[in-house]
Amino acid sequence: MAAARNPSRTAPPTPRRDGFHLISNVPIDWDKPVPRLGTYAFRDITYSKSSVDAAARIAFDRAQVLHAFTPTTIREIQMALEDATDDPYVGVVILTSNIDAEQYTPAFCAGGDQTVRGDGGYQDGTEIAPKLRVLDLQIQMRRCPKPIVAQVRGYAIGGGHILHMVSDLTLASTNAVFGQTGPRMGSFDAGYGCTTAAALMGQKRARELWFLCKFYSAHEAQAMGMVNAVYKDDELDGETARWVRRMISNSPTALAGCKAALNAAQDGAAGISQMGGEITRLFYLSDESREGRDAFLEKRAPNFRSKL
Ligand SMILES: CC(C)(COP(=O)(O)OP(=O)(O)OC[C@H]1O[C@@H](n2cnc3c(N)ncnc32)[C@H](O)[C@@H]1OP(=O)(O)O)[C@@H](O)C(=O)NCCC(=O)NCCSC(=O)CCC(=O)c1ccccc1C(=O)O
Hints:
Blueprint: H1 7-10, E1 36-37, E2 40-41, E3 45-50, E4 55-60, H2 71-86, E5 92-97, E6 107-109, H3 134-143, E7 148-152, E8 155-157, H4 159-166, E9 169-173, E10 177-179, H5 182-185, H6 192-201, H7 203-212, E11 216-217, H8 218-224, E12 229-231, H9 233-249, H10 252-284, H11 287-297
Helix pairs in contact: 2-3, 3-4, 4-6, 6-7
Bound molecules: ligand LW2Y6JES.
Ligand LW2Y6JES binds next to α3, β8, α4 and α5.
């Protein structure tokens, strides 16, 4: 008698076979916020980690000005991001904002705080000279080997919009609104602000974004290619958790390699350096590489071929 066929051998192919829908969408349980790093106490952001879900959450905390950023805000994000990057336990970083919808219009970030915009850049009394510190943060985000997820509610405008574009993934609430305003505000970002827009949505749409300074709904932004997924506002935290949980269950080295490769074409020599750094780090783990170090320390000639 012929054996009964295993039904899984004949199951029709389905995208749901990836099991993504089976991952819990219970919002991430954050530990108590990290109030300070070293002697520095955060003022413009909150920084939290989850011991359960291996993620870090960096949130703008200036709701009264729609989370517009000053040099201090950016410096604080840089510090938190450095900590999250170096912490081997953290697998994914979420960049978002603290929403107080009872008092203030929801926003992810309304860009550079115009009240501290001086003639040569932004200066809130903490810079040696006025500068565009956010450009350094953009580079730090690109170099961070871990996925950065922008979780966007409300307005993501100007420099805030660029920070979501530079993030690896963007998950948006249905109430999110996206746009550049630079040419209406006497500003522009000829670096990642323009080049990332073109890479995400194509040249014509990127020119529309920057030349017209129109605003776009979450669904329009998704159709343009700059938002990965749109969720109802009350489902966004849970769905973000699902994306985070899938990524932290994947290989960190594979994710870092993919991020470096995806950055490489746009980032030129800096992109190759990021990619090369990953390769060198892995090479250090090999017998061949260790032979160079050991031979030096043992004051002998290296024999690399013996380690192949
Ligand atoms: C976002 C709005 C359309 C929302 O409008 P509305 O709901 O009516 O709210 P408002 O009443 O306007 O705002 C509430 C409250 O917030 C204050 N506020 C909002 N945005 C800013 C801001 N950017 N700076 C300072 N303050 C802000 C606003 O004044 C209100 O305060 P009150 O005390 O209640 O009056 C609308 O708010 C709006 O259009 N905002 C401006 C958005 C904008 O144009 N942002 C871009 C600024 S330029 C920039 O971001 C460049 C940044 C930069 O550093 C850079 C430079 C060069 C190269 C690269 C970069 C880079 O960013 O990467």
